[in-house]
Amino acid sequence: MKTIMHIHELQQTIKQERYEGKTIGFVPTMGYLHEGHQSLLNKAREQNDVVVLSIFVNPTQFGPNEDLDAYPRDFERDQNVAKEAGVDYIFYPDVNEMYPNEPSITIQVTKRVDVLCGKSRPGHFDGVATVLTKLFNIVTPDRAYFGMKDAQQVAVVEGLISDFRFPIELIGVPTVREEDGLAKSSRNVYLTEVERAQAPAINEALQAAKARIEQGERNTSVLYEEIVSQIEEKTDGVIDYVEIYSYPELEPIQMLKGRIIIAVAVKFSKARLIDNLTMEI
């Protein structure tokens, strides 16, 4: 495993790997790797000859009330996780490497961003799309891997790849869960003992809605009410949103058809948890 900090060096390295006929799998992250990231790396390792992991805390996706400097960093630990997963190259640039000058062109994401978590983070996905455009052009991967835990981000990336015709296969990797079904998250440590015991009810409500759909329910209002009722009954959390949209378009639907997403966000005393499921009707 080799750590590369400069764009030119990585591009030359990738060029050589491609000359030898190898496929490239890419996992873009902001570091502080956890089991969710590890599942992405494992999938990339399964499907490609070469695995590239990028670690870059991207300043352009942080809003004015979000503390960039407080974002957790532990590169030594990240290296250990990457090595265990069989990563070939870590791309670890600094801000000046990725943003050497004031940009002459900016990217604005106009769809799929004014709902779910994006509603309260204006401009966030503009920053995500900007850095991914840079990274996709630098790494030129055959496949790029993103966790379905953040299904909205996956939807935005799908739009980016499609609109800009990147020759990249987008792989959405299923959410990694605890044994009781709770989606794994670094935020789970902020739950009290009581809240931690209640939190699996979020996924239980989603699975109950899925079962109702499989039994023939197609009315989104009925499903919405049942999800809200279950979460309110079984947790002390405050529901931020329960939404049902077409996926990946993230547009409202009244009757279920095609591929859909059911997404939930619940606020506990010191943690806001998100979860979702996607399914084909």
From TrEMBL:
Q: What class of enzyme is it?
A: ligase
Q: Which NCBIfam families match?
A: cyt_tran_rel (TIGR00125), panC (TIGR00018)
Question: What is the catalytic activity of this protein?
Answer: (R)-pantoate + beta-alanine + ATP = (R)-pantothenate + AMP + diphosphate + H(+)
Its pathway? Cofactor biosynthesis; (R)-pantothenate biosynthesis; (R)-pantothenate from (R)-pantoate and beta-alanine: step 1/1
Residues recorded as binding ATP, renumbered to this chain, are: 30-37, 147-150, 176, 184-187
Instruction: Supply the name of the protein.
Output: Pantothenate synthetase
Which GO BP terms apply?
Answer: pantothenate biosynthetic process
Further remark, if any?
The reaction proceeds by a bi uni uni bi ping pong mechanism.
Which domain of life does this protein belong to?
Bacteria
Q: Which Pfam families does its entry note?
A: Pantoate_ligase
Chief site of localization: cytoplasm
Top-level taxonomy: Bacteria, Bacillati, Bacillota, Bacilli, Bacillales
Q: How does it assemble?
A: Homodimer.
| Record's function text | Catalyzes the condensation of pantoate with beta-alanine in an ATP-dependent reaction via a pantoyl-adenylate intermediate.
UniProt cross-references to CDD domains, sorted A to Z: PanC
Q: Where in the cell is it found?
A: Cytoplasm
One GO cellular component term noted in the UniProt record for this chain? cytosol
Question: Which organism is this protein's natural source?
Answer: Priestia koreensis
The residues listed in the UniProt record as binding beta-alanine, with positions renumbered to this chain, are Q61
Q: Which UniProt keywords apply?
A: ATP-binding, Cytoplasm, Ligase, Nucleotide-binding, Pantothenate biosynthesis
Specify which residues bind (R)-pantoate according to the UniProt entry for this protein: Q61, Q153
Protein family (similarity comment)? Belongs to the pantothenate synthetase family.
Cross-referenced InterPro entries, in alphabetical order? Cyt_trans-like, Pantoate_ligase, Pantoate_ligase_C, Rossmann-like_a/b/a_fold
So what EC number does this one have?
6.3.2.1
Molecular function GO terms recorded = ATP binding; pantoate-beta-alanine ligase activity
Q: Where is the active site?
A: H37
